[in-house]
Amino acid sequence: MGKPPCCDKDGLKKGPWTAEEDQKLIDYIQKHGHGRWRILPKNAGLKRCGKSCRLRWTNYLRPDIKRGRFSFEEEETIIQLHCVLGNKWSAIAAHLPGRTDNEIKNYWNTHIRKRLARMGIDPVTHTPRLDLLELSSILSSSLYHSSQLNLPSLLGIGPFANPNIQNLVTAFNLSSQRKTSDMNTCQYLQQNQFDNTLVGNHQFQSSQPIQPSTIYSGQANQLHSRPIQEIQHCAASSTLSAPFQSEVPQLTQAKMEQLSPNLAYFGSQNSLPNLWPNIGERPDHLAMGDIPNFPEFDSIIDPNSENHVLHSNNIERIPSFSFDSFITTPSSSSTPLNSSAATSYANCSTEYEDSYCSNSLMYNIPNSLNASGLRM
DNA sequence: AATCAGTGCAACCGCCGTCCA
DNA sequence: TTGGACGGCGGTTGCACTGAT
């Protein structure tokens, strides 16, 4: 192995810093400035290694450190910079005055990465996750072509041993039965496909990560001005818009086989929010508890907003798409929830993450298919 | 009230690049 | 030219806190 940890020698102290130690370090640096970390602890009367002192100073004691929650602007900046710089936390921190690389790194790992994952966006590449897009398409296509999706049959396996998975399939079939009768599902799925395609279009045509300026910001609205045909014809592998794809049954079968291992995660937890897209139209006989934990179940819809797509009767009604509604902080949300939406958010995991279930979350992949389902 | 699981964050670890004798 | 010292960085760990059961 490499050289031994510097703190192992001389009986130097490790672990949390005491207030006394902090004060000693502050006093010393105020008098002598920082640098020469190797000799600093000795001169300051600290039983710490220089490295520990440097970390304590740069990550915690520095007077210009900004504490408290990240603002929306900061969060957006982090995502944008991460898209460009990757895990170069110090470089990212250089653009955020008062924030340390360690703080940004922690915030990324504990908040932003999870949210992007929930949104179906790969936090590493900043592209939509292809496997989720495909699975979403498969489910959509199957829903269109069959009023009873027989997943066990499709997957070539017996009845689900896991009751949660069985519940999921049941729910899916119930949704299918109801929705195929009024065609709203088709429109909804088209819309959902369309939304996915907007993102997928970027990936497949350019092979570049989605640029924050388009996908994360209001500028994404420009994407929606494209003719629907232009958008739908591309990226067929990820967007099998049912009415337009004659090869759906074959592809569906193939893709189901391809993805079947991952489907084993289906019933593990979280949601499949798209199954009952219309708020208030959840089947009466299917209580919320029938499917485990649907945090975004209703929350992707703001009934008062022009943004909502699920009631759309016109495929060309292009929803707006704003990053503001993806990631906001309670203090700076640009899309405050109205009362009905707030009510429907009741099952969101945390207040802070409610914005993730926000009204114009078009790029919506069931939670059961992302972070906890299909491993990142 | 006790226990457990999940979460957030400070701190540590190990590697790497740069500097300098 | 070389090797040790040093600082910086990204990844990981450990623990305190909180909410659920």
UniProtKB/TrEMBL annotation:
Broad class of the protein's primary localization: nucleus
Matches recorded under SMART domains: SANT
Keywords of the record: DNA-binding, Nucleus, Repeat
GO cellular component annotations of the record: nucleus
Every HTH myb-type domain range: 9-65, 66-116
SUPFAM superfamilies for the chain: Homeodomain-like
Residues of the Myb-like domain: 9-61, 62-112
Subcellular location: Nucleus
CDD domains assigned to the protein according to its UniProt record, in alphabetical order: SANT (cd00167)
GO MF term list: DNA binding
Pfam families: Myb_DNA-binding
UniProt xrefs under InterPro entries: Homeodomain-like_sf, Myb_dom, Myb_TF_plants, SANT/Myb
Protein name: Transcription factor MYB41-like
Organism annotation: Juglans regia (English walnut)
